[in-house]
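Title: Comparing notes on inverse folding

I've been comparing how different people in this forum approach sequence design from structure. To keep things fair, I'm posting one structure and asking everyone to reply with a full sequence. Here's the target:
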């Protein structure tokens, strides 16, 4: 059994992301989108829809879901799964908020 160690990187303040909005971060393997829901829950995923790779950060946040701006695929931010009848999934990235600061978990080198 392998254990993955995470390095937690400070990204921004929670207030830097508008409610129902997103913040995009550059990354070596493509952009990361960090979403803030209306209840201040925060989720992080790759900024590409699993369907046609649309920029999820430009979609509409509702509940804990994001609607892709290209073809309206709905992705559950809690699970990474596309809503039926669509089929697809994307990995979530570890994110946490402490004292109003957003942290992203990156796999330690």
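Reply #1:
Here's my take.
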């Amino acid at each position: 059994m392998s254990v993955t160690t995470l390095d937690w990187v400070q990204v921004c303040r929670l207030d830097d992301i508008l409610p129902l909005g997103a913040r995009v971060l550059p990354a070596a393997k493509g952009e990361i989108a960090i979403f803030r829901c209306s209840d201040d829950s925060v989720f992080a995923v790759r900024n590409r829809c699993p369907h046609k790779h649309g920029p999820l950060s430009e979609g509409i946040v509702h509940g804990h879901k994001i609607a892709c701006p290209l073809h309206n695929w709905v992705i559950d931010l809690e699970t990474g799964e596309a809503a039926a009848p669509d089929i697809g999934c994307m990995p979530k990235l570890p994110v946490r908020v402490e004292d109003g600061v957003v942290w992203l978990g990156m796999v330690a080198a």
